[in-house]
């Protein structure tokens, strides 16, 4: 479904972001993220000199190695293209994310460890959506292999994390009724105060 036709315009900037998920032979998982920013016109930067059109202004990558619980066991990052030499200082603080889990509270964990001047804005932005890529990689693949083995793709008394987090996955909606009827109309338990 394409967007409506735009008004006349000139293309100036492209930010390209790619996430990839991998199953490792050692039982862990790698989630990789790459981001680049390019301009369609030449730039002259005080610290990088002449930059022809298409030269990456930002070119950054992260690899997070996760266990089955989506907890970061290892993390590495690179800033091959950055506006300033000082941008390289943003890679070491990423180690503070080791032990964090890509799940509830993920964005708060990123801000606590890397927010403001404690980390690189662009690496932080890449981290935000790594959790979605991890979820699309790990639980989805595990459900796939369970189905291939003739098992139900989900076990448990609590609903999968993604239910109730999107208009399509509304507990009172048709998608939940079709795919997880046991959770149709589900309400979280209220805490006693």
Shape label: globular
Report the biggest beta sheet as strand number plus sense, adding barrel if it closes: 4 strands, antiparallel
Q: Which bin fits the share of residues in helices?
A: 10-25%
Number of domains: 2
Strand content: 15-25%
Strand order of the largest sheet: 1-2-5-6
List low-confidence stretches: none
How far apart are the first and last residues' alpha carbons, in Å? 48 Å
Please give a structural write-up.
This protein is of the alpha+beta class and 193 residues long. The chain folds into 2 domains: 13-149; 163-187, no CATH class. It has 3 helices and 6 strands. The chain has helices spanning 106-114, 121-148, 174-179; strands at residues 13-23, 29-39, 43-45, 49-51, 58-66, 72-81. The strands form 2 sheets. It has a 4-stranded antiparallel sheet, covered by helices on one side. Strands 3-4 form a two-stranded antiparallel ribbon. Helix 1 (106-114) runs antiparallel to helix 2 (121-148). It starts with 12 loop residues before the first strand and ends in a 14-residue tail after the last helix.
